[in-house]
Amino acid sequence: MLAEIATMFSATTSAVDLAKGLKAAIDKVGDAETKLQMADLISKLAEAKLEAAAGVERIAALERQLSLTKSMTFDGELYWQEGEGDDREGPFCQRCFDDVNKAVRLQLSRTHGAAWECKVCNSGYGS
What we know:
The chain is of the alpha+beta class. It is about 60% helix and about 15% strand. The longest helix has about 40 residues, at about 30-70.
């Protein structure tokens, strides 16, 4: 999907360049109506190019989120990010990850009653 949007972005860029070349040729003719239509075409192509770029960025963000989600495991209380072999990162806050898909690393608790605490949502884990 990302490849298709990148191709569309490239095609739109080429179309903008072509339209600019046509505009230069039309400017020599002097027809006001044609010039106005050409300027409108260039404007619409520029908008399409911006929308395609935003789509590419959004898809890349979704792919990163999907990759993160696939790498996380839940042990019944905390999330851990699986690494290579037996390596794993974490723990991460269950509430932050489940609620807003944000991997927030937990800190060792300095208060009584919890082993781990989240500095973002103030959740405590373990005893």
